[in-house]
Amino acid sequence: MDELAEKEERVKLLLEEKGLDALLLSRISNFAWYTGGKSNYVNVAAEFGAASLLITAKGKYLITNNIEAPRLEREEELREQGYQFVVTPWHETQQAVTQLTTGLKLGADGPYPGALDLTSEVARLRHRLIPAEIERFRRLGQWSGEAIQVAARRIRPGFSEHQIAALLAQEVISRGVLPIVNLVATDQRIFDFRHPLPTNKKLERYAMLVLCGRKWGLVASVTRLVHFGPLPDEVRRKQEAVAQVDATFIAASRPGARISDIFKKAVETYRQVGYPDEWKLHHQGGLAGYEPREYIATPTSRQVVRPRQAFAWNPSITGTKSEDTIIVNEKGYEIITAVEGWPQIPVQVEGQLIERPAILEVS
Fold it and tell me: 291: which DSSP letter?
């Protein structure tokens, strides 16, 4: 079964389970998932796109306005996927869904009049990747890893955080990837804030770059740190400690493992490396895919790791952080955002060697 056919089967089974006749997909993440990586957005910060998919027993419909239709047809090639285009002038009220679903029991991936909200149920359909998605994810991970490492090596003391963010965006966008999260902190701000929006503060010695890059709807997450001059012993010790925690997360991410058990192992590692309460200061990451995090892991998470799932763990110890995106398979894991040429910290966990990113030291 090819990618689109498998997704159609997943939706069909969901509709049967819920006793519904039709499904409306409008979220950017779900549109990309169901169409094999196509884009329905204009505003990259929006949650819902400028076009919707309606799946019924009679056919598949793409509902949009006359502004978006030409691109969706010629560049996204959605008519070739079998969609019937239903196009409304941009200045008129959209009535197509109501007309096409008269007498039908409708589900939707968000609040919609007269529809059953299946936001969570549709999201779960995305969680296990299809081989074609894994191939796209690998390319996205490679480009995201390259972009952040090139940008990190280009920065110099005196650059403002806004300039650093612009460098990162340039490297990311030039590779065809959208930086939907582009965080930068320098010096003391790395210690003060876990989610540092860039400011005009100028880099003196220490910089952190954080990226969530999106392409084909998929999102890869990665963090890198750079220090100019001798690295303080305390910061080095923290980065080595957080690398140990990150390696624990990765090693434990095996098919069949409970997320709560993985989390508990990482919390224990925080304790062993001397920072028992740091995990409480920021979330530790979780399942990745068509959102930066499809869900965030907690000590009570009930989910179980499955083969062909992606995870982005991001443990942090005040002033340091470790983050890459991995794909779990039957034999172990694959770090898709790791790129050669960056200094690594070798960590031994459960009999295996796992390398995590060190802080790049520039003399």
Answer: S
**CA 150 – CA 350 distance, rounded (Å):** 33
Which one, of 305, 300, 207, 296, lies nearest residue 251 by Cα?
Answer: 305
Per-residue pLDDT of the chain (363 residues; tens, 9 = 90+): 599 999 999 999 999 999 999 999 999 999 999 999 999 999 999 999 999 999 999 899 999 999 999 999 999 999 999 999 999 999 998 899 999 999 999 999 999 999 999 999 999 999 999 999 999 999 999 999 999 999 999 999 999 999 999 999 999 999 999 999 999 999 999 999 999 999 999 999 999 999 999 999 999 999 999 999 999 999 999 999 999 999 999 999 999 999 999 999 999 999 999 999 999 999 999 999 999 999 999 999 999 999 999 999 999 999 999 999 999 999 899 999 999 999 999 999 989 999 999 999 999
Closest alpha carbon to 338 in 165, 144, 169: 144
Torsion sign over Cα 56, 59, 62, 65: negative
The full set of domain ranges for the chain reads 3-125, 131-362
Distance CA 255, CA 266 (A): 17
Residues 100 and 115: their CA atoms lie apart, in Å, by: 13
Would you state the structure tokens that stand for residue 10, as one six-digit string? 């997943």
DSSP class of residue 258 equals: B
What Å distances lie between residue 245 and 185, 195, 203, 242, 348, CA to CA?
22, 20, 28, 5, 11
pTM: 0.97
- Residue identified by tokens 């819920």 is 18
- Which residue, among 37, 29, 27, has the nearest Cα to 4 in the 3D structure? 37
Point out which residues pair with 141 in neighbouring strands: none
φ, ψ of residue 184 in degrees (nearest 5): -140, 135
**Class of 131-362 per CATH?**
alpha beta
CA atoms within 13 A on the CB side of 183: 19
Amino acid type, 321: K
- What superfamily in CATH does domain 3-125 come from? Creatinase/prolidase N-terminal domain (3.40.350.10)
Q: What's the token pair of residue 335? A: 């770090």
